[in-house]
Amino acid sequence: MEQDEVTVLKDKPDLDLLKSKAIAIRRQILEMISRVGSGHPGGSLSCVEILIALYFHIMNINPNKPRWEDRDRFILSKGHAAPALYATLAERGFYSMEDQKDLRSIGSNLQGHPDRHRLPGVDVSTGSLGNGLSVGLGITLAGMLNKQNYKTYVLLGDGECNEGLIWEAAMAASHHRAENLIAVIDRNGLQIDGPTEQVMGLEPLARKWESFGWNVLQVDGHDLQGLISAFDKAKLHRHQPSVIIAHLIKGSGVSYMEWVADFHGKPPNDDELLSALEELSKGYK
Amino acid sequence: MQSTKSAYGEFLVETASKHPDVVVLDADTSHSTQTLDFAKKFPERFFNMGCAEQNLLATAAGFAHAGKIPFVSCFSLFGSGRAWEQIRNYIAFEKLNVKMVFTHAGLSNAPDGSSHQSLEDIALMRVISNLIVGVPCDAEETHLMLSAIIETLEPTYIRLRRIEEEILEKPYDFNLGKAGIMKDGSDITLVGTGMTVPIILQAENQLKNNGISARVINLHTIQPIDEPVLIKAARETTGIITIENHSTTGGLGGAVTEVVSSKNPCLVKRIGVNNSFGESALTVHELFNKYGLTADNVVANAKAMLKK
Question: How many CB atoms lie within 10 A of CB A93?
């Protein structure tokens, strides 16, 4: 063990419980988007396992104290996956979904992109891509200056890695040895206009992050055990920030959405929703 | 004589012990912005983000999220221009306590030329909700303004320059958001900010010799703007002349016009860099002369307005 400080010890994860949460959260995502006919299903569905691994096992948080100073932080830099975050936070006990108005509707706390003024559990308001890693860096460096141990997790989209600011942050995080900063990339291979490698090729992505001075891990992003192990390794790594490239399926969990770029921002219609919910209830994933 | 940026550098060092949560971020410009002294004395609280202004501002936001008070510095054009969206979405929208003190504003960075001369930053920043925008008239006012803003929790932008400037006599108590009345005249009103305050003082003197009584207002806080002082001036004098080290569009003149046109319409003449970029010169005063930022120009416009 490289780490010489006390870590929060967690029991072995209950994978069956986590998988059932994944189904519940996918249902929520589809229902909330469908009900209002607006939202981003593809990229919300792809990152469910990541959110579950973090919020139900890895992160040191307290839903009763959403602003607890020593908490681990999470930034949904790919802010359009808000439905996934909203469903996860509700499931985790930060607030009740029943109390909320519809997604994206006027007066709702469930804004189109996360707004930390409106929902407990949201650490940073996001939406405009490319910025979350920098904000996460600032939060991390402040914590390290204060000699606090919290980790800051930043979930990035792969299309989001087109933004130059991501690379400014990557350079700076490595330069400033921000070891408590852990990025996760939702590597689902699609962006709005098509596959990432056709629109703006990212590969060799892992080598890019390595060359920027990051500790790089790669994992099947739908394998909860694999994700948890990757996070555990990242938490122990010293002197460099870590990035977990999570290979994922955009639209994961719904057969007709999987790998389809069109479902980036297109809500399912009534028939599509019914079919999706049926698949989920049969335990598709 | 002292530069506004050197007053800033001194303030940071003074304030460091009184406010242990202060951290300073710079974009490889600490030798110019004068954050260098703080960097030397408090190295663990200084973060050089390199020549990358967007990352500079978004990282500062992160520090503020975590309870620090970040002072962020770089050149005005690149901070307010390049990182405008970071400021808007990640600082102002979030209402974070980030103090953006950018230097080399307006034509004050004369030799570097147009690419470095920010003629738009007042416009760009005041149009963002939740931001305080301040332009101190000299080094002393810089100190007063910084002392005031550190006691607030609002995101703030302070516009500083590059060169040494004279310290002005200021017959008012400094209050953020309350304009400084330099002279209380009755015929016409002259409004300046930052480097144009000495210019309107000169103009007032010339006008006095011509039998014209000019009210001289130092509008050091552009946002929130001192509406009562402007409405009073619009009501009590013939008209207002604004002059700024900035474009004539959207800055001081724009802000003043918005207030009076809706509350007490009067003629407003805006002097500044008019529909043009800047250029290189060895001194800022050559540029001020070329672009009409002079007492003579203010006087001529005042006389013309009074003839109407």
Answer: 13
Q: Does A176 touch chain B (CB under 8 A)?
A: yes
Beta bridge partners of B243: B192, B271
Angle in degrees, CA A242, A244, A246, rounded to 5: 170
Nearest residue, CB atoms, A142 vs list B52, B66, B94? B66
Task: State the best of B65, B68, B88 to mutate against chain A, taking most chain A CBs within 10 Å.
Answer: B65
Query: Helix H segments across A127-284?
Result: 132-145, 164-175, 196-199, 205-211, 224-236, 270-281
Q: Would you call A147 an interface residue with chain B, using a CB distance cutoff of 8 Å? A: no
Reported ipTM exceeds the 0.90 cut: yes
- Across the beta sheet with B214-218, what order do the strands follow? B180-183, B214-218, B188-192, B239-247, B267-273
Lookup result for tokens 């400021």: B87
Asked whether the predicted pLDDT for residue A256 surpasses 90, the reply is: no
Buried b (16+ CB within 10 A) or exposed e, A169-191: bbbbbbebebbbbbbbbbbbbbb
CB contact under 8 A, B65 and A175: no
Q: Chain A contact for B55, CB < 8 A?
A: yes
Using one digit for the tens of pLDDT, what is the confidence trace for B113-148? 999 999 999 999 999 999 999 999 999 999 999 999
Q: Which two tokens stand for residue A215?
A: 């500790």
